[in-house]
Amino acid sequence: MDTQLNSITAGVFEEQEGHLTQSEPGPKVDRVVELAEKLDGLAEEASGETVDHIRTARNHCLEYVEEGGGDEQPRTE
User: In whole angstroms, what is the distance from residue 18 CA to residue 1 CA?
Assistant: First the structure.
């Protein structure tokens, strides 16, 4: 679980750094979707109140994408 959490944290920091260095900042949709998927996996391994917090974060990511956030279309695999 620590590895997944570290990966998620690194992804968030990458997006924050991109926000500061890109001429047109904003999270990429595919990165937000990837983050939501990682949070979903993390929630499956967590317990108690932590699960609620992780799912809330995941839901915020998905709402952002649904509302048209980001600057590109999500990747389809």
Answer: 26
Q: Count how many Cα atoms sit within 13 Å of the Cα of residue 23 in the half-sphere of its side chain.
A: 0
Q: What is the spatial distance between Cα 38 and Cα 45, in angstroms, rounded to a whole number?
A: 11
Among residues 22, 51, 28, the alpha carbon closest in space to that of 39 is found at 51
Q: Give the pLDDT of the chain (77 residues) as one tens digit per residue.
A: 677 777 777 777 676 565 555 555 566 788 889 889 999 999 999 999 999 999 999 998 888 888 887 555 444 44
What angle separates helix 29-45 from helix 49-66, to the nearest 10 degrees?
160
Both structure tokens of 15: 């997006």
Instruction: Please give the single-letter amino acid code of residue 43.
Output: A
